[in-house]
UniProtKB/TrEMBL annotation:
This is DUF6299 family protein. Pfam families: DUF6299. Keywords: Signal. It comes from the Bacteria. The lineage of its organism: Bacteria, Bacillati, Actinomycetota, Actinomycetes, Kitasatosporales. Residues 32-143 form the DUF6299 domain.
Length: 144
Protein backbone atom coordinates (compact mmCIF):
# COMPACT_ATOMS: atom_id res chain seq x y z
CA UNK A 1 0.00 0.00 0.00
CA UNK A 2 1.34 3.43 -0.93
CA UNK A 3 2.19 5.82 1.91
CA UNK A 4 0.73 8.92 0.22
CA UNK A 5 -2.95 7.90 0.33
CA UNK A 6 -2.58 6.96 3.99
CA UNK A 7 -0.88 10.26 4.84
CA UNK A 8 -3.51 12.19 2.92
CA UNK A 9 -6.29 10.35 4.73
CA UNK A 10 -4.70 10.88 8.16
CA UNK A 11 -4.11 14.56 7.49
CA UNK A 12 -7.58 15.04 6.01
CA UNK A 13 -9.18 13.32 8.99
CA UNK A 14 -7.20 15.48 11.41
CA UNK A 15 -8.31 18.63 9.59
CA UNK A 16 -11.94 17.53 9.62
CA UNK A 17 -11.84 16.66 13.32
CA UNK A 18 -10.34 19.97 14.32
CA UNK A 19 -12.60 22.03 12.09
CA UNK A 20 -11.74 25.08 10.06
CA UNK A 21 -11.06 27.40 12.97
CA UNK A 22 -8.48 25.17 14.63
CA UNK A 23 -6.91 24.20 11.33
CA UNK A 24 -6.42 27.80 10.27
CA UNK A 25 -3.85 29.53 12.44
CA UNK A 26 -3.41 33.19 11.71
CA UNK A 27 -0.31 34.33 9.87
CA UNK A 28 0.90 35.87 13.13
CA UNK A 29 0.91 32.49 14.89
CA UNK A 30 3.23 30.80 12.37
CA UNK A 31 6.95 31.33 12.81
CA UNK A 32 8.20 33.82 10.19
CA UNK A 33 10.61 31.18 8.91
CA UNK A 34 7.78 28.71 8.24
CA UNK A 35 5.86 29.21 5.01
CA UNK A 36 3.94 27.24 2.43
CA UNK A 37 3.05 28.45 -1.07
CA UNK A 38 0.76 27.08 -3.79
CA UNK A 39 1.55 27.24 -7.50
CA UNK A 40 -1.10 29.15 -9.48
CA UNK A 41 -1.75 26.18 -11.83
CA UNK A 42 -2.66 22.59 -10.89
CA UNK A 43 -3.02 19.62 -13.25
CA UNK A 44 -5.91 17.24 -13.70
CA UNK A 45 -5.55 14.08 -15.82
CA UNK A 46 -6.99 10.55 -15.85
CA UNK A 47 -8.89 11.03 -12.58
CA UNK A 48 -5.88 12.45 -10.70
CA UNK A 49 -5.17 16.00 -9.52
CA UNK A 50 -1.63 17.28 -8.93
CA UNK A 51 -0.97 20.36 -6.80
CA UNK A 52 2.43 21.84 -6.01
CA UNK A 53 4.29 24.73 -4.41
CA UNK A 54 7.11 25.43 -1.97
CA UNK A 55 7.52 25.16 1.80
CA UNK A 56 9.95 26.11 4.53
CA UNK A 57 9.80 24.80 8.10
CA UNK A 58 12.02 24.27 11.12
CA UNK A 59 12.57 21.06 13.06
CA UNK A 60 9.68 19.48 14.92
CA UNK A 61 9.29 16.69 17.45
CA UNK A 62 7.21 14.44 15.18
CA UNK A 63 6.89 13.68 11.48
CA UNK A 64 5.94 16.73 9.36
CA UNK A 65 3.92 16.74 6.12
CA UNK A 66 2.66 19.18 3.52
CA UNK A 67 -1.00 18.34 2.97
CA UNK A 68 -3.31 19.89 0.43
CA UNK A 69 -6.97 20.00 -0.47
CA UNK A 70 -8.95 21.46 -3.35
CA UNK A 71 -12.46 22.85 -3.61
CA UNK A 72 -14.30 23.80 -6.77
CA UNK A 73 -17.65 25.39 -7.51
CA UNK A 74 -20.45 26.22 -5.11
CA UNK A 75 -19.96 22.99 -3.13
CA UNK A 76 -18.36 23.39 0.29
CA UNK A 77 -16.70 19.98 -0.04
CA UNK A 78 -12.90 20.06 0.13
CA UNK A 79 -11.18 17.07 -1.42
CA UNK A 80 -7.87 15.96 0.12
CA UNK A 81 -5.06 15.72 -2.43
CA UNK A 82 -2.24 13.70 -0.87
CA UNK A 83 0.52 14.50 1.57
CA UNK A 84 4.27 14.90 1.16
CA UNK A 85 6.82 14.29 3.90
CA UNK A 86 8.53 17.59 4.74
CA UNK A 87 12.21 18.16 5.46
CA UNK A 88 12.25 20.84 8.17
CA UNK A 89 15.76 22.25 7.92
CA UNK A 90 14.86 25.94 7.54
CA UNK A 91 15.47 25.88 3.77
CA UNK A 92 12.93 26.23 0.99
CA UNK A 93 11.83 22.98 -0.69
CA UNK A 94 9.31 22.04 -3.41
CA UNK A 95 6.26 19.92 -2.64
CA UNK A 96 3.93 18.07 -5.01
CA UNK A 97 0.84 16.11 -4.03
CA UNK A 98 -1.22 13.89 -6.31
CA UNK A 99 -4.57 12.38 -5.43
CA UNK A 100 -7.41 10.64 -7.19
CA UNK A 101 -10.83 12.21 -7.60
CA UNK A 102 -13.96 10.31 -8.43
CA UNK A 103 -15.80 10.78 -11.69
CA UNK A 104 -16.24 14.38 -12.71
CA UNK A 105 -15.89 15.79 -9.18
CA UNK A 106 -13.27 18.26 -10.45
CA UNK A 107 -12.71 19.67 -13.91
CA UNK A 108 -10.45 22.17 -15.65
CA UNK A 109 -11.08 25.72 -14.46
CA UNK A 110 -11.00 27.85 -11.33
CA UNK A 111 -10.45 26.11 -7.98
CA UNK A 112 -9.49 26.98 -4.41
CA UNK A 113 -6.55 25.19 -2.75
CA UNK A 114 -5.47 24.97 0.87
CA UNK A 115 -1.94 23.77 1.65
CA UNK A 116 -0.84 23.10 5.23
CA UNK A 117 2.40 22.17 6.95
CA UNK A 118 1.26 19.82 9.70
CA UNK A 119 3.33 17.99 12.30
CA UNK A 120 2.03 14.85 13.98
CA UNK A 121 3.14 15.27 17.60
CA UNK A 122 2.95 12.38 20.04
CA UNK A 123 1.01 13.44 23.16
CA UNK A 124 0.66 10.58 25.61
CA UNK A 125 -1.11 7.77 23.75
CA UNK A 126 -2.45 10.17 21.09
CA UNK A 127 -0.84 11.74 18.06
CA UNK A 128 -2.15 15.27 17.59
CA UNK A 129 -1.66 17.62 14.65
CA UNK A 130 0.31 20.84 15.12
CA UNK A 131 -0.02 23.34 12.27
CA UNK A 132 3.11 25.23 11.21
CA UNK A 133 1.78 27.22 8.22
CA UNK A 134 -1.35 27.44 6.05
CA UNK A 135 -1.87 28.98 2.61
CA UNK A 136 -5.23 29.38 0.88
CA UNK A 137 -5.18 30.38 -2.76
CA UNK A 138 -7.29 30.44 -5.90
CA UNK A 139 -5.69 28.51 -8.75
CA UNK A 140 -6.51 27.22 -12.21
CA UNK A 141 -6.77 23.49 -12.89
CA UNK A 142 -5.62 22.56 -16.39
CA UNK A 143 -5.87 19.27 -18.30
CA UNK A 144 -2.66 17.33 -18.79
Amino acid sequence: MSVRPVLGAVTGAALLLLGSAAAAPSAASAAPSETVTVDSVGRIANGFVTLSGTYRCVAGTGPVYVSSSVQQGPSADRRPIGGTRAVCDGREHRWENTGSVSGDALKAGAAHVEATIVELRPTGILVLPHFHAVQRQDITLVRG
